[in-house]
Amino acid sequence: MRASAAELGVGFALRAVNERVPQAAPRLGAVSKTRPADMVIEAYGHGQRTFGDNYVQELLEKTSNPKILSSCPEIKWHFIGHLQKQNVNKLMAVPNLFMLQTVDLAKLADKVNSSWQKKGSTEKLTVMIQINTDGEDSKHGLPPSGTIAMVEHIKANCPSLEFVRLMTIGSFGHDLNQGPNPDFQVLVSLREELCKKLSIPADQVELNMGVSMDFQHAIEVGSTNVRIGSTMGLLKETCPRQDRS
Prior knowledge:
Elements: H1 5-8, H2 10-19, E1 27-31, H3 37-45, E2 50-53, H4 56-63, H5 66-71, E3 76-79, H6 88-92, E4 97-103, H7 106-119, E5 125-130, H8 147-157, E6 161-167, H9 182-198, E7 206-208, H10 215-221, E8 225-228, H11 234-237
Parallel strand pairs: 1-2, 1-8, 2-3, 3-4, 4-5, 5-6, 6-7
């Protein structure tokens, strides 16, 4: 019987994922939502530096954990869930917050910019714009038609934010026998349109698409950043709580 990734440990799981990522690999973000501090610390010890959480309160608890603070000085936290405006100030107070992945409203961008300025950081907060590529009502994100206007708004009105990527969740369970995932294709086309319209070099706008179940396909069609959670085995099999997204 083959041992599971959870039984073999975090290091094995990370190596297993990285072996499936081609050379010139995209950045690998580990989804740490619902995962205990010890698991984050172990993954950090094996070289993982970027971790994403969905819930502000859970992220606050992790980032104030003395063990994580002492063991993970170079950790980079990404917020990957839907952010409500009333939670912006709480999120901006997170130590080592590096990126907000889910900007989808101009008013939200304005509030994040203002709160980050009040924090007094010497670095800009990097942000992604979330696009709802498949139009599902259950998903957050801008419609594709609003992408250029949102980028223009951030560049003109949010000096403390740095737009770096477009992201989409995309439809789950796409049958690759029917061709490439159309949601990924929409995001690739949006980048081309955006860069042409605003005269931005294409290599300055990254794409975040692909999760555990489809990250290899996402890389093949152009993703520069992927989120890995359940594929790492340990992140699913050793945690009794169920993912809430």
